[in-house]
Amino acid sequence: MEGLSLPVITDPPDDHREVEAWLQTLGGPVWLMLEGEDDRCCRVVTTLLHGNEPSGTLALHRWLVERPRPRTRLVVLLANVRGALSHPAFTHRHTPDDRDLNRCFQPPFDGPAGELAWAIIQDLEAWAPECIIDLHNTSGNGPGFAVSTRRHPVIETLTGRLCEQLVVTDLRLGSLMELPLWRPRLADCPVFTLECGGALQPAARDVAEGLYRLLAECPDLTALPAASGLEVLVHPLRVELRPGASVAYDRSPCPDVDVTLWARIDEHNRGVTTPAATLGWLGPRGLSCLQARDGEGREHVGELLCVRQGRLHARRPLRLFMATTNSDIARSDCLFYAVPFA
């Protein structure tokens, strides 16, 4: 397709080629295009924006062995190939000399990650897609869920077939799913993030493969009947460390650490977290080392969390998402997201 910033390939991997060997042949970020029976319509999946979130790529590699023929054109972005292949493979969110690509989809587009994000934006507008789904893995183990910046019938129909929860967020981080908010040519395009589950969970690959099959086999997304049972949660709060605060993970409080989170806090990514559960332990600074701001910058940490005898608890029943046990992600990104549960 003329005018695209990134290369386009049309040949799926050989039946016996390992996924890492296949990625090595790509050489960098590429679009993989599958021509459909009706190429007047294009659907886009973006994956591997984070090099340590491989389920979308692993599922694609497995599915392409079947040589699928989609009902419409299906285009898949393999973005951070360099980060994914940094040794050991699929363990680096991004290379040490670069930024988080999924925080670069807003100006200024500085550095290699910013330049790549701008190239992706231009290409997405050139594809003029019917929908865009950005595939990710959760930072910790847990069930898959979807995230969007708005409610939309197509978003809710698709997510209801792939997961049980849709989180509608007003937080703005510079992620790809925010593009319809400020790119007029994408304003009417349904865009959402599908968090498939933990990177090491086999079920996460199944969720991603289910998305590819759904997009490939459905001739009309607007005609799909709504799935029952989708839970829609609105305005999650992002619980973060304040600048300079320290974090560790253990089964008891660590000395000289501001926040010690329970070693298996990712278990709280399922179900409802009650005030009885111990999430971790806080040092002398207490809650002052944490923050939880909404989309307008207002602080809510005291409404979500409390300290009892040095232990960190939910102040009220909460749904937790993306609770990680990776201290690097906790420091550079966030500890978890929380939504009050009525």
The averaged pLDDT comes out at 94
| Arrangement of strands in the largest sheet | 1-2-4-3-5-8-6-7-9
> What is the CATH class name of the largest domain?
Alpha Beta
Could you tell me the CATH topology label of the largest domain: Aminopeptidase
Determine Rg (CA atoms, Å): 20 Å
What's the CATH superfamily of the largest domain, by name? Zn peptidases
**Which structural class fits the helix and strand makeup?**
alpha/beta
How many strands, which pairing sense, and closed or not: the largest β-sheet? Answer: 9 strands, mixed
Q: Please name the CATH architecture of the largest domain.
A: 3-Layer(aba) Sandwich
Number of helices: 8
Q: Any low-confidence stretches, pLDDT <50, length ≥5?
A: none
Total number of strands = 18
N to C succession of SSEs: EHEEHEHHEEHEEHEEEEEEHEEEHE
Task: Bin the helical content.
Answer: 10-25%
The 3D shape can be described as: globular
Keywords: Hydrolase, Metal-binding, Zinc
Organism: Halomonas urmiana
InterPro entries: AstE_AspA_cat
GO molecular function: hydrolase activity, acting on ester bonds; metal ion binding
